[in-house]
Amino acid sequence: MNLFFLFLIFFYIGLFAIGGGLVAATFMQQVLVEKYALISAEKFYSMLAISESTPGPIGINLATYIGTELYGPIGGIVTTLGEVLPSFIVIIAIARFFAHFQDKPAVKSVFATLRPATSGMVLIALIQVFSIAILNPLDTITSPLNAVKWPSLAFYAVCLAVLFLTKLHPVFIVVVGAVFGVLFL
């Protein structure tokens, strides 16, 4: 795969990933892991975890990380431009014309449809990340007790309890999660 094709893949992802970084991550997983097998699922979800832990938009962080991993710094620049350029073009076009058609029933209907579709894409990403992080791969399961990564599940439960029962900022949970992942997984 050459850099131009990689740019087109990320341009496509950036164009159709309406709803944020987790939607873009779902598209990236479908295209890069399932369709073209450029990276393994395990590697992809590790990259996703690191991208979520670093400051900035998840989709752009992930695109940059994947491009850099595949083709070095030039690949990172190409994938980042591919990811960002569609949004830039669309925002410029919308800003130019939105005032003229924002009250039209068709426009309101499109936005009303996009909200639940985007929520569904985020839910899919959540389920995929959760299953990779908490469940063992099917081919490694020897018993029902072996189906779950118990340290990961326990850590998840503790983090969830801390988030709901304290006023600790979620950034601290992300940092502790990154350290946990590096040290114990």
TrEMBL record:
<feature type="transmembrane region" description="Helical">
    <location>
        <begin position="155"/>
        <end position="184"/>
    </location>
</feature>
<dbReference type="InterPro" id="IPR052518">
    <property type="entry name" value="CHR_Transporter"/>
</dbReference>
<keyword id="KW-0472">Membrane</keyword>
<comment type="similarity">
    <text>Belongs to the chromate ion transporter (CHR) (TC 2.A.51) family.</text>
</comment>
<keyword id="KW-0812">Transmembrane</keyword>
<protein>
    <submittedName>
        <fullName>Chromate transporter</fullName>
    </submittedName>
</protein>
<feature type="transmembrane region" description="Helical">
    <location>
        <begin position="74"/>
        <end position="98"/>
    </location>
</feature>
<dbReference type="Pfam" id="PF02417">
    <property type="entry name" value="Chromate_transp"/>
</dbReference>
<keyword id="KW-1003">Cell membrane</keyword>
<feature type="transmembrane region" description="Helical">
    <location>
        <begin position="110"/>
        <end position="135"/>
    </location>
</feature>
<dbReference type="GO" id="GO:0015109">
    <property type="term" value="F:chromate transmembrane transporter activity"/>
</dbReference>
<keyword id="KW-1133">Transmembrane helix</keyword>
<dbReference type="GO" id="GO:0005886">
    <property type="term" value="C:plasma membrane"/>
</dbReference>
<dbReference type="InterPro" id="IPR003370">
    <property type="entry name" value="Chromate_transpt"/>
</dbReference>
